[in-house]
Amino acid sequence: MDTFTVRLPRWPVLLRLAGRGPLVRTTDRIEALVLVLAVVVSLIAAPIAAAVGTAVYDSSRHIYAEQAHTRHTVAATVTDVPASQILRTGTTTVSARWTAAGTEHTGTVKAQSTAKSGDSLEIWVDNNGAQVPAPTPTTRAAAEAAMGALVIWISVAAIAATLFTVTRAGCDRIRFTRWQHDLDDLVGNGDGHQYPGRTSER
């Protein structure tokens, strides 16, 4: 009965890193090691970035939910329309008054450029009646979390890739120098003579 031996394919990088072939040089092993480390670091960074994104999501969602709970709209009456510059959005700043939390408040609010004294506007206020921006939608928390996690992972992966690129460039420079020395040993230094004492990396 014939027997067959099945050899699994080996990753070329691992061949460089762990192989014992005479053609594998020290610079090849260093380059392969840094590449493996860069890949491992990028893979490890993925769950870490996801955990940070989850924490950002929980925190942001809590803040935005609290804003929605503590902010509400009231009717404000325009009391004065100063001759102010109209913004590109077609709005302007006017004086107004409103009643909230049992107290009358006054202040400046944004209104359409066509607003006149006596017009009624809808503004957002907090529980104390102070004017505040509109609450942020809770759906924005997911987008912020995803963006934060992506930025973290891309940053780590970019650093790892930069480290590998710098290492590879240094290894290439060493290899080119060794090759030049080998060529000099073979053809001499232009005067037909070879110079002993030069060794090449194997």
What does it look like?
The chain is an alpha+beta fold. Helices cover 50% and strands 17% of the residues. The chain is built from 3 helices and 4 strands; from the N terminus they run ααββββα. Strands 3-2-1-4 form a 4-stranded antiparallel beta sheet. Residues 4-11 and 197-202 have low confidence and may be disordered.
Brief sketch in words of this structure:
Helices cover 50% and strands 17% of the residues. The protein has three helices and four strands; from the N terminus they run ααββββα.
Question: What descriptive keywords fit this protein?
Answer:
4-stranded antiparallel β-sheet; 17% strand; 202 residues
Write the layout of secondary structure elements.
Blueprint: H1 12-18, H2 26-70, E1 72-80, E2 91-100, E3 103-112, E4 120-125, H3 140-187
Antiparallel strand pairs: 1-2, 1-4, 2-3
Helix pairs in contact: 1-2, 2-3
